[in-house]
């Protein structure tokens, strides 16, 4: 890895941190800044430091004047936005296909949901090569390249082939499966070879790192693995590849501040005026079969059946954010969720009390923060998750420190938060129901003790701690080590 001379960070992800939108009424395309933890984390090291972000534009349409659109956005952002164009067929095969119908379910231990289509893999390789070409056209010898997530595991392999020899690191935001599941992937050797073309590979948890190391030992006969401090080093084809776990955090201070803001306070008062005499159990999830929403609803029904004294005194607020609409298995999941909600409400509703309140739409930021603050219990029970930041957001927003987190043992966050949360197996509906009941009865003192510990962890191991820990492992640098460029002006790029 390089010495301290690195000047720029180049981020490569499937999507750019700006959303390209078409105002059809005015026939005009605009760029809207995106949000999310990754953007928050990397903005300090990109803005006015000559940084570059490479990613897909988010559309397959022809966009008139796209060069000036991205030039203008780059000037405003303080770093260069480098768009990669994809056709509709490539999006269907590479993104919806290999990324989300092969890798996503397999890496979440749900191989029954996988589609193993050769065309998916060929499209994945083709698109990853295009990202590598965009990277090679943009990088300088002393740059540091950070590639993100399962859609782009193959980028470094192609970048090396076209003589892009800068330091490259990769972070996997989702879990990595154990060998018995990874072996089911037809392209398993190619994927491992692709990952081993990076200089540093980061995972969310020790379990994910261990799974990867076991796969390397089993499948890569000439690779040698050794421990080096908190990292593992894989010697492969005359190169050293460092491997570590770096649990991602959130901007906890920003969530806490926003949760106490006037908009969230106003929404909170509205919720408390209607439900203040009941305990609120909150679930917030994207529509996905990995989130365990049907199992959660069955657990809540089990609670109402086995502990009738809670009826009329508790509500489940289940927020489901639409995702991948029009895909049959997601449409089927939505139908199943709505059937379970209807069944529970039909069976247990009383005059003046409906047990489950179901929201199938995104919430505004103020509404989400108000729900976090209003909730007495958060039910974060995915069947498998790389980390799950909802758990951390909930803790950051629990300003009064009077709430309880119930967390799946299969969420990556359980490794950090498990000692102060109530940890459950989401497949065990009775255990989950018992955890809700225990949280419902928990004393105020125990609630405060647990939440204080959770909030301390979320504040300390935040998003900036995550970036710093990854950077130190990669190039022995931190956010503050990237110098701000006075009067920064993004370079002109011909392929913008």
Task: Describe the overall structure.
The chain is α/β, with parallel strands linked by helices and 496 residues long. It folds into two domains: 9-248 and 462-481, Rossmann fold, CATH 3.40.50.2000; 252-460, 3-Layer(aba) Sandwich (Rossmann fold). Helices cover 44% and strands 19% of the residues. It is built from 18 helices and 17 strands. The chain has helices at residues 37-46, 66-77, 88-107, 118-136, 155-161, 179-182, 188-195, 206-219, 252-259, 262-275, 293-306, 328-348, 365-374, 389-397, 414-417, 429-441, 444-460, 463-475, and strands spanning 9-15, 18-23, 28-33, 52-56, 80-84, 144-148, 167-171, 200-203, 224-228, 231-236, 239-245, 279-286, 314-321, 356-359, 377-380, 404-408, 422-424. The strands form three sheets. Strands 5-4-1-6-7-8-11-10-9 form a nine-stranded mixed sheet, sandwiched between helices. Strands 14-13-12-15-16-17 form a six-stranded parallel sheet, with helices on both faces. The protein has a two-stranded antiparallel sheet with strand order 2-3. Helix 14 links the parallel strand 15 and strand 16. Helix 1 (37-46) crosses helix 18. The longest helix has 21 residues, at 328-348. The radius of gyration is 23 Å and the shape is globular. The relative contact order is 0.12. Residues 486-496 have low confidence and may be disordered.
